[in-house]
Amino acid sequence: MNVKSNTMDTGNKKVVVCDDDRGILDMLEMIVESVGVSVWTEVDSSKLLLQLETDVPKLLIIDLWMPNYPGDAIIRKLRADAHFDDLYILCISASLNGEQIAMEAGADQFLAKPFDIGQILSVLDRVLLEN
Amino acid sequence: MTDNPLKNSAYFDDPEMTSLIYAALDASSTGIIITDNRLPDNPIIYHNKAFETITGYNTTEIIGHNCRFLQGRDRSQEAREQIRQALQDGEDIRIEIRNYTKKNDLFWNELYISPITNAKGEVTHFIGVQNNITARKKVEEQLVVEKESIERKVAERTENLRMSEEYLNSIVETIRESLVVLDPNLNVLTVNEAFLRTFKVTRSETIGLRLYDLGNRQWDIAKLKNLLEEVLPSSNPVLGFEVEHKFPHIGHKIMMLNAHRVELQGKFKDRILLAIEDVTDRRAIEKRKDDFLSIASHELKTPLTAVKGYMQLIKRFMPENNPKLTDIIEKSDNQIERLQKLIAELLDVSKIQSGKLDIHHDTFDFDKMVRDTIENIQLNSDSHKVVLRGETNAQYDGDETHISQVVGNLISNAIKYSPGKDRVEVYLSTLKNHIKFSVKDFGFGINMEDQKKVFDRFYRVDSIQKKFAGLGVGLYISEQIITQHGGTIWVDSDAGEGATFSFILPHTEK
Ligand SMILES: Cc1cc2nc3c(=O)[nH]c(=O)nc-3n(C[C@H](O)[C@H](O)[C@H](O)COP(=O)(O)O)c2cc1C
Prior knowledge:
The structure holds two protein chains of two kinds. By secondary structure, chain A is α/β, with parallel strands linked by helices. In chain A, 37% of the residues lie in helices and 18% in strands.
């Protein structure tokens, strides 16, 4: 399951993580970086869309329940834009009906908090090594 | 009446004119007579045709008689005295008097008498004019009788109503709910004290107004209007209609409305009794409890997620051959696991309480689910061997995750509450139209008293409470899950000889 860092392209921002909780954000950044993938984090969901426009990542890990701009609204916006057709969206949330909300909005996958980092690693593995 | 019109008239000298006047008098439907006051007892000297018709007497029975014969034996009337007085004083009079026809039929006679005086001022004649007013009198009398009986009935009924109204009023006033009585046009007829207190208004700014015009038109809601307008025609009550509104004087409130058609002994049929209850606090508490538990578990899960992630990262980056650190990490992991379970339980309880515990139905292999659950438990517990006996062979239709949660909870409890023992036994079996799961431990057992209560929320067996941490909601949640599948869960135990927890689920093999 482990992804060796030398198998990853570290040059581009391949993964973007958006969560309003700094603790989760830092932890996820460390996990992604631990396998040598470059990651960019955003704590303010309202700034996320603008950033994504300029540099489309391969994977977006996004929380649902965020102030300013809720995750499901962002997912909907992305799914309506052909520009992001190749973007894999992993939704993570501690909300009661998070899975339903995420899948209805158009996420590719959902993980309930608290997740095992093994689950995150296997998503990275699958999505980033796809091509 | 000092002149004598008959004598003074120029016509009287003309015989043709005289006969014309007689003809005119006879054509009248009103009785007319003339008496000669100068003769003894004031006898009748002229009568017209109508007088015969009215009285039934003929000329020979009339002329020369005093008119009192019309009174028959009914002589003690007050009217008679009044006539006598008037005649004596030489004045005219209008009076109603009871008279009788020749056939002795009563008729009411509306009588005018006028005196005729000569030049010397002596009353020489009287003219009498009679009208039969029996019919009119009858109607009038009937009216009086009817009016009296109506008044009597009204009085009786008013008394009855006064009593039942007083009774009703005392109920209406003592009740703590706000009550409004509406007429069919939804105008406010009355309100009780509770209404005035609740809405901080006076009677004068309430009574007589249309319901929709009260306050800042808080009840002017199309849906409520439709429902209320249906109450009278259909007799369908309005039940539990909630209005959330910023009311004048009292601010934001949630009011629950119930409206019924009311009737009081036919006095008012078409009234609507509207009961208004302030449910603001009740709703707020319900919502807060709901919100609190789901927000709390969400907020607890967030740092837990971070801690769990970091712990797993430490494991990844940890240099090998460091048994001390490995042990610490292991123990931390267990604590995180425990915390995670507690939060999950908290959430389950909140879901059950708010009725949001969703049971999904899918067919799954029951025995495999039990084996998988046991395997999972054995991974974390090597103190006890979980022995599996029997089988159901059931392709069960239900919520696998939740049933597995129950199985896991029962087996974990069996292990937890039998420290020092080395095994627990799981039995699977089929009964008529049911499948059965049991788990037996060899621990302290549970006494009769506690057996009934172990499935209660937050209940923990006293003797055990101090030894083991936890919310004590596991069995409560398990019971809820089993019940929602149509099954039952129970415990058999003899204190000191362990306990057996069992559940059955309805199942028929297809
Ligand atoms: C012109 C004239 C017409 C009268 N018509 C009637 C009559 O229609 N019915 C009647 O009861 N009395 C009638 N009276 C009254 C009676 O003749 C009589 O005066 C009355 O009963 C009072 O007198 P008494 O108490 O001697 O009877 C009439 C009297 C006069 C003078």
